[in-house]
Write a structure and sequence with these properties.
The complex is a heterotrimer of chains A (347), B (426) and C (131).
Chain A (H helix, E strand, L loop, with lengths): L1 E8 L16 E4 L5 H8 L3 E9 L1 H6 L1 H15 L3 E4 L6 H18 L3 E6 L3 H6 L4 E5 L6 H17 L6 H4 L9 E3 L4 H13 L29 E6 L3 E3 L15 E4 L11 E3 L7 H5 L7 H10 L4 E2 L2 E4 L7 H17 L4 E5 L2
Helix pairs in contact in A: 1-6, 3-4
Chain B lengths: L1 E8 L2 E4 L4 E3 L2 E4 L1 H9 L4 E9 L5 E4 L1 E5 L2 E5 L18 E7 L1 E6 L10 E2 L14 E9 L5 H21 L8 E6 L3 H7 L5 E9 L5 E5 L2 E2 L6 E3 L1 H5 L3 E5 L9 H5 L2 H9 L5 E10 L3 H17 L4 E5 L5 H15 L3 E8 L20 E6 L3 E4 L4 E4 L3 H6 L12 E4 L15 E3 L1
Parallel strand pairs in B: 1-9, 2-4, 6-24, 10-12, 14-19, 14-20, 20-21, 21-22
Antiparallel strand pairs in B: 1-13, 3-4, 5-12, 6-11, 7-10, 8-9, 15-16, 15-18, 17-19, 23-25
Chain C lengths: L4 H5 L2 E5 L2 H7 L4 E4 L4 H13 L22 E5 L7 H15 L11 H19 L2
Helix pairs in contact in C: 3-4
Classes of the chains: A alpha/beta (347), B alpha/beta (426), C mainly alpha (131).
C-alpha cells in the first residue's frame, strides 16, 4: 500500500484559530482532521501514515527551522507522497503548504500535492512549481477538494502520467499538455462564440500572455527643472545587501541614500539579482543604475536634480502582485518628496 | 444558395476488375487509376495502394487527402477552375463517397513530412486513419522541377477523386443533408432575433508548396473576399500546401470544413450563419495588414455580431490570425479564434508567435511539439526512406525496428486549426 | 501600422544566408549576405531594426519550422526612420520562436534537401517581391 504523509495547520488539527497559530511543528501517527476524507477516498490504495501539524505563524516566522524539522519528520516515514492542505483561501496556510511541499519534493525527491483557492497568494507563488489543485474558497469545499485531489494524489504516488490541467483539476502551471476533448475544436469554437455573444462566461483554452499595459504619462514639461528618481528591478544594493533582498522571488524592496554619490563603484554597491550574470553589474553598478551619467546631466543642467533615494528590488521571478504592492508604497513617497519623473531600469 | 449533400457510406475498399460501389464497398480498377495518373507526362510510373482503418500501414509522406464527390445536379462540377470549368458551384445536389479518400504521396522536396498511421497510437491523432484510402504513389520523370511536380501530383489527386466520385453519380445516398444560405436580407428577415455570425477562413498563401487555390486562383493574389459555405463543399477551395503536416488544411478539410458544418448545425437555432470570408496569409507584412483590414471591413459590412477565425500553418500566420482578431474585435464584433500551439517538447515555451489581449476566446488544436512514439507498422506505403528525414530529428528517433519517436507535428492533420479534431491542450 | 514606405521610396534591403537569393538579387537589390545560420539572419535583422529600419516581410515566412530549414531571407526597408515598435515586436517574437525548436534535425542534410530548402526560401521571397 502507498504511504502518504499529510501536512495541516493548527486550525484543521482542531488546536485553535489565530490565537494558536504559534504552535510549533509536531507529528502524529495516522490521520488527523481532513485526512479522514482523503483516507476514505484512497480506500485500499494508500494509507496516511502520519500527519504533521504546524501553526501558520510558527511556520512563517521560523521558516528555515520549521522546514528542516518537518522534512526530518517526513523522512522518517519514507512516504510515496506528501500532501499539504488543502488551504482554501487561508493565505499564510497556503504559502506554508506551498513552501513545505516544494521543500519536501526538492529534499526528499518524493511527489507532492497541495490544494488552494485560486486567489490564495500561495497559488500564484507555487502553482508553476508544484501541482496545486484548484479548490473552493472555504473549508466548506473540503469534499469537492478531496474529490479532485485524491485521484491526482494516487497518480502522482504511482508515478503515472499526469494529464492536462483541465482533466486533472490542478491549476494551469505554464506547461501545456495535450488531451482529447469530448467535442471537436470547431464545435467548441461555436459553443464558445455563442456564450461570448450572449454575454455568458466562457473559458478560453489558451489564455494570452498577461499584458499589463500602462498608458504612458504625459511628457515632462521641462526636464531641465525636473527632479528625477531612479528605480530598478536589477537588484543594485549597497554592498552586503543590508536588507537581505532575496536573489529571486523578492518579498521586499530597498530604499537607499545616494546623496553626494557621484558614481556607483564596485567597492560600495553590487547586485543582489540571481537571474543574470552579475559580473558586469558588479564591476560597474552604474550599468544597471545609471547614477554617474545622471550626475553629469545634473551638473550640466540637462536635468533638474537627482532624487536623494533610489528604490530597488530583484525582478527575478518576483510575483507581479508583490511588485505592484512595492510600487504602490514607494510611489506615494516619491510623490510626497516632489519627484517629477522616474527612470525605471530592468535587466 | 442551397445544396443537398448526399452521403453514400463506404465501409471497405478493394481492387476489382470493375470500379463500382456495392454494399458499402468501393471497388477500384487499379489499372484505370494508374492510367489516369500516367496521362500526365510528368510521371514515369505510378502505383496505387489501399490502406484501410485498423491495418498495420504507415503512409508517408502525405501530400494531400481528397474526398471523392460528384455533382449530381446544379451548375458546375467538383473542383471548379481546377479540373472543371469556372462555374459557380454550391447549389443543387452533390454526392459524396463518405468514408473513402484519395491520398497523394510524393517526395516533392526532400524534407517533406506527413504521416498517416492506420492503426496504433498515431492513428488516434489523424482523422484519415478512419478512412478507406486509395493511396497514389507517383514517380516523377527525372529532372522534374519541384513546382511542376507539386502541380502534377495535385492534379493527379483531383482527377482520381473525380473518377471515384463519378461512381456515386447514380447512387441513392444513405443520408441527405441540406445546407442553405439565404441572401443577407432574407436571412435577416428570417431570424431577426438571432446573433449574426460569419466565418473568417484564413488560407495559406506563401509561394511554392504553401498555396491554396480558390476557383483556380492562387489565394495570395486575391484580396479578402466572400464565398458561400456550400461552395466549399463542391471543392471551390483546394490545397496546394505541402508543409507543416499537422496543421495544414488538406483538400479534405476544405470539403468538410468543420466550422461550416458546426455553424450550420446552429443556424436558425442559436445564431444566423451569414457566410464565409476568405482571407490569405501572405509573406509581406503590408499584405497582412491589407488582408486583415479587409476581413474586418467585410465583417463590419455584413453587420455580423460575431465571427470564428480559423488558421493554417505555423509561425507567421499567427500574425495574420492576431491581426484579424484584433481588428475585428475593434469593430465591436466578438471573435473566437482556432489555432494550435508550438509550446516546446515540455510544453513550457510561448505557444504562439504573436499575441494580443483581444484574443480572449481561443480554441487550440494542441501542442504540435509534444513527443509521440509511433510503433513499427507491417507495411509502409509511399516512401520509406523519408522516415529518416521526418524523424531524423533527435537522437535515436528512428529506431531499428521501424518505430519512430517524433513530435506530433509530423502527423497529417494532427493539430488542425479548423478544429477538425478533438485534440486540445491546457 | 506598417506604412507602405517601400512603395513610396522603392527602397528595400534583403538580408539572407541563402546564396541563391544573393546571386539572383545582388545586381537589382541591396542584398546583405550573412555567412551564418538562420538565427544569425534574425539577429542581423533585429540589429537593423534597432537602427531604425522597418521590417517588410515576416521573419517566420513559410511554415517550415526553424529546425527544418537552415535558410532564411528577410526584407527590410532600405531607409532608416524612427524605431518601429511593430517591427521590434515581430522580430523579437520570431527569435523567441526560433529558439524554442530543437535544432538537431539539421544534421545530415543531403545536397538535394539543401537545394530544396534554398529553392523554397527563394520562392517565398519572390512571392513577396511579386506584388
Amino acid at each position: 500500500m502507498l504511504k502518504v504523509v499529510h501536512y495541516i495547520n493548527q486550525f484543521f488539527a482542531n488546536i485553535g484559530g489565530e490565537e494558536m497559530a504559534h504552535v510549533p511543528a509536531e507529528v502524529r501517527e495516522g490521520i488527523v482532521g481532513p485526512g479522514l476524507a482523503f483516507q476514505q477516498a484512497f480506500g485500499e490504495e494508500a494509507e496516511i501514515v502520519a500527519t504533521i501539524i504546524c501553526g501558520d505563524s510558527y511556520f512563517n516566522e521560523n521558516l528555515e527551522e520549521a522546514k528542516q524539522t518537518i522534512i526530518n519528520m517526513v523522512k522518517k516515514y519514507s512516504p510515496d507522497l506528501f500532501i499539504a492542505g488543502p488551504a482554501f483561501n487561508a493565505g499564510r496556510y497556503g504559502v506554508a503548504c506551498g513552501t513545505i511541499a516544494m521543500a519536501v519534493r526538492d529534499e526528499l525527491n518524493i511527489p507532492v500535492l497541495s490544494g488552494m483557492y485560486r486567489e490564495n497568494p500561495g497559488a500564484d507563488m507555487f502553482k508553476n512549481s508544484i501541482y496545486v489543485v484548484s479548490t473552493k474558497n472555504s473549508a466548506a469545499g473540503m469534499r469537492d477538494a478531496v474529490k479532485k485531489m485524491a485521484p491526482l494524489a494516487l497518480k502522482l504516488a504511482k508515478g503515472e502520467k499526469v494529464g492536462a490541467s483541465a482533466e486533472e483539476g490542478y491549476m494551469p502551471n505554464g506547461k501545456r499538455v495535450n488531451f482529447f476533448e469530448k467535442e471537436r475544436g470547431s464545435r467548441r469554437a461555436v459553443n464558445m462564440l455563442i456564450k461570448k455573444l450572449n454575454g455568458k462566461e466562457f473559458e478560453t483554452e489558451f489564455p494570452m500572455p498577461d499584458f499589463d499595459r500602462v498608458d504612458p504619462n504625459p511628457a515632462v514639461k521641462d526636464i531641465t527643472k525636473a527632479k528625477i528618481a531612479l528605480v530598478t528591478s536589477g537588484g543594485i544594493v549597497p554592498k552586503g545587501n543590508p536588507d537581505h533582498i532575496e536573489s529571486s522571488s523578492a518579498s521586499k524592496y530597498g530604499k537607499y541614500d545616494i546623496d553626494g554619490i557621484m558614481d556607483l563603484t564596485e567597492a560600495d554597491f553590487a547586485t543582489a539579482h540571481g537571474g543574470y550574470d552579475p559580473v558586469y553589474a558588479n564591476l560597474d553598478p552604474d550599468r544597471v543604475l545609471p547614477v554617474d551619467v545622471l550626475r553629469e546631466f545634473e551638473k550640466e543642467g540637462k536635468i533638474g536634480s537627482i532624487h536623494r533615494y533610489f528604490y530597488t528590488t530583484v525582478g527575478n521571478g518576483t510575483a507581479v502582485k508583490n511588485s505592484k504592492a512595492f510600487a504602490e508604497e514607494f510611489a506615494k513617497e516619491l510623490l510626497a518628496d516632489g519627484v517629477d519623473a522616474v527612470i525605471l531600469t530592468s535587466t | 444558395m442551397k445544396l443537398e449533400l448526399g452521403s453514400i457510406f463506404i465501409k471497405d475498399i478493394q481492387f476489382a476488375a470493375e470500379s463500382k460501389v456495392e454494399n458499402e464497398t468501393l471497388y477500384v480498377n487499379k489499372e484505370e487509376v494508374r492510367q489516369i495518373i500516367l496521362e500526365d507526362q510528368n510521371f514515369k510510373s505510378a502505383d496505387v495502394e489501399l490502406a484501410k482503418p485498423g491495418e498495420s500501414i504507415r503512409i508517408m509522406p502525405v501530400k494531400d487527402v481528397i474526398e471523392p464527390r460528384v455533382k449530381v445536379q446544379g451548375p458546375g462540377g467538383i473542383f471548379p477552375g481546377m479540373v472543371n470549368k469556372v462555374e459557380t458551384v454550391g447549389s443543387g445536389k452533390t454526392n459524396v463517397l463518405k468514408g473513402a479518400a484519395v491520398v497523394t504521396t510524393g517526395k516533392i522536396v526532400g524534407f517533406q513530412e506527413g504521416i498517416i498511421d492506420m492503426t496504433g497510437p498515431g492513428a488516434e491523432y489523424t482523422p484519415f486513419s478512419q478512412l478507406n484510402n486509395l493511396v497514389l504513389v507517383c514517380e516523377p520523370i527525372d529532372g522534374l522541377k519541384q513546382h511542376e511536380h507539386e502541380k502534377a501530383l495535385r492534379f493527379a489527386g483531383y482527377k482520381v477523386a473525380i473518377y471515384l466520385g463519378e461512381l456515386a453519380r447514380n447512387l441513392t445516398p444513405d443520408v441527405v443533408e441540406t445546407f442553405e444560405t439565404p441572401s443577407i436580407i432574407e436571412g435577416f428577415k428570417m431570424y431577426p432575433e438571432l446573433p449574426r455570425v460569419a466565418y473568417v477562413l484564413m488560407l495559406q498563401s506563401q509561394g511554392l508548396m504553401h498555396d491554396t487555390y480558390v476557383y483556380g486562383v492562387d489565394a495570395k493574389q486575391s484580396l479578402t473576399t466572400m464565398i458561400y459555405p456550400t461552395e466549399l463543399m463542391d471543392g471551390a477551395i483546394v490545397s496546394g500546401n505541402c508543409v507543416s503536416a499537422c496543421d495544414k488544411n488538406t483538400t479534405y478539410h476544405h470539403l468538410n470544413n468543420p466550422v461550416i458544418h458546426d455553424l450550420f448545425a446552429e443556424h436558425g437555432k442559436t445564431l444566423n450563419f451569414v457566410g464565409v470570408i476568405i482571407t490569405n496569409e501572405n509573406v509581406y507584412l503590408a499584405d497582412k495588414e491589407r488582408s486583415s483590414n479587409w476581413s474586418a471591413k467585410l465583417a463590419e459590412f455584413l453587420g455580423v455580431d460575431g465571427v470564428i477565425i480559423s488558421q493554417e500553418g505555423f509561425g507567421n500566420p499567427d500574425t495574420d490570425l492576431i491581426m484579424n482578431c484584433k481588428k475585428i474585435e475593434a469593430k465591436g464584433i466578438k471573435t473566437v479564434i482556432i489555432t494550435d500551439e508550438y509550446a516546446g517538447r515540455d510544453g513550457s515555451s510561448q505557444s504562439l508567435a504573436d499575441a494580443d489581449a483581444s484574443a480572449d476566446a481561443v480554441v487550440t488544436g494542441g501542442n504540435a511539439n509534444e513527443v509521440i512514439e509511433l510503433p513499427p507498422m507491417d507495411k509502409i506505403v509511399g516512401y520509406a526512406d523519408v522516415a529518416d528525414i521526418i524523424a531524423g530529428g533527435f537522437d535515436g528517433s528512428l529506431h531499428a525496428d521501424g518505430s519512430i519517436t517524433a513530435e506530433l507535428q509530423v502527423i497529417t492533420g494532427a493539430t488542425n486549426e479548423m478544429g477538425f479534431n478533438k485534440l486540445s491542450a491546457r | 501600422m506598417f506604412a507602405l514606405v517601400i512603395f513610396l521610396t522603392g527602397g528595400c534591403m534583403i538580408i539572407t544566408n541563402n546564396d541563391w537569393v544573393y546571386q539572383k538579387f545582388k545586381d537589382s537589390c541591396n542584398v546583405l549576405f550573412i555567412k551564418g545560420s538562420y538565427r544569425d539572419v534574425l539577429v542581423k535583422v533585429r540589429d537593423k531594426i534597432q537602427e531604425g529600419h522597418e521590417l517588410l516581410t515576416h521573419p517566420l515566412s513559410s511554415s517550415l519550422k526553424p529546425n527544418e530549414t537552415p535558410y532564411k531571407s528577410i526584407i527590410i526597408s532600405e531607409n532608416k526612420g524612427t524605431l518601429n515598435f511593430d517591427s521590434v515586436y515581430i522580430i523579437e517574437n520570431s527569435i523567441m520562436s526560433y529558439d524554442k525548436f530543437n535544432k538537431n534535425k539539421l544534421i545530415n542534410l543531403t545536397d538535394k534537401i539543401i537545394e530544396d530548402f534554398k529553392l523554397i526560401d527563394l520562392t517565398v521571397l519572390e512571392s513577396a517581391l511579386d506584388i
